[in-house]
Amino acid sequence: MKQILALILFVFVFFGCTQKQVVELKLPNKNKIEKQVQKEKKVEEDSVTIVEEFTPIDIKESDIKEETIPNGSMNTIDEENINIQIDETKAKIKIAFIYPSSLVSKYAKNSMNTISGYLSYKKADYNLVVIDCENESYDKISSAFSKIEEEGITKVIALFTPNAINTLNKVVSNDLKVYLPLIEKKDSLENNDNLIFGSISYDEQLKKLSYYSTGNNAMFYQDTYLGSKLKRSYDNVVTNTTVRKEIKKNETNFKNIVNDYRLKNSSLFLNTDLVKTSLILSQLRAYDVYPKIIFSTQLNYDPMLMILTQDKDREKLVIANSIDSVDAKLKDEITTFGGNITYEWVDYSTLVGINYLYNDGNSSSIPTQIVDNEVIYTPRLFKSTEVGFLEIK
To answer: Which of these, 207, 208, 164, lies nearest to 182 by C-alpha position?
Structure first.
C-alpha cells in the first residue's frame, strides 16, 4: 500500500513540474498589416485611383463621372477635379466613350469591354476616356463634348438613344467623328457628316422575314418602347394583316390571345421580348393552335430561348439576325474582356464602330461595312436547334 501511494505521489510531482508546451502561431508582420491597411485606405480616399492592371470595369452609378484608361490602366476622375492625363509619347489612338447612365447603363459596360477587347487584339497603344453624362439633356451632352474637344480627342463612341439626335446635331461639329451604336440614320432629320449611325434596322429584318410570309399575317407586340418601335416598323413593311394583338407588361396568361381560329395557318410575327415569346410559343401548342410559320426579329436571337422553350414549341419559328461572324481570335479576345459579339447586337455594333474609327475607314477585319455614315447590316434567317441556332440557306 505504501509503495502504491509513493508511486502516485511520484507521478503527480513529475507531471505537475513539467513545463507546458506552446505552439506559436505565425501571424503576418504587424507593421506590414498596418502599412497595407493604410495603403488600402489611401486608395479609397484618393480622388484619383490608378489601377495598374486592366480588368473589365464594373460601371456603377456613383460620384465618378469620368475615367481615363491609358493603354491598360485607369484614372478615375471626379467632377470637381477633372484632370485627364494622357501619355502623348505612348498613345497612338485616343477614343472617348460617352454614355448616359440613367438610360443605358446595362449596355455601357459590355460596350466598353468590346472596345478594350478589340484594341487589345490589335495590340494598340491607346487612351480610352469614359464619360458618364448621366442623361440626355442639352447641357449634359454639350458639357461632355466640350471636355473631349479640349483634350484634342476626335474619335468618339456615344451610347445615346434616338431622343438625343437633335442635340447631337447641334453640338457635334469640327473634326469629330462620333459613332452612335443605338441610332439609325433615318432617325435624324439633318445631315451631319460628323455622325455615324450604327443601330441595326428592324425594318430590314422584317422585310427579310416577310419574303416567306404566306400572306395571312398576324402580329403580337408589347406596350413598351421597343414594342412600339417594332410595331411601327412592322406597319411600314408588312401588309394584309388580319390580326393585331397587344401584350400587356404583366400579362402571363395568353389563353384568350392565342386561342383564336384566325391564327391557324397564319404567318405570325412575334414582336415580343424573350420571356413573352417563350410563353406564347408554349401556349400556342398547349391550345393546339398552329400557325403556318412564326417570325421574330433580333429581339429573340438569344440562346436562353432554348432553355425557356421545348423543341416542339420552336419547330415553326424563324428568327432574323444581323450579327455577322468575325475572326475567332478577335471574338475570343473580346469575350475575355467581357463583351458578347455573338448574341448582343449592341456589342457587335460597338465593334463595327471601333474598327471603323481605329482604321479611319472600313477594313477586312469586320465583314459589316459603313457606307455614307451608316452601318449596312445584312439580315440572315435562323432556325433553332437543341444547342443553338442554324442558319437557313
So the answer is: 164
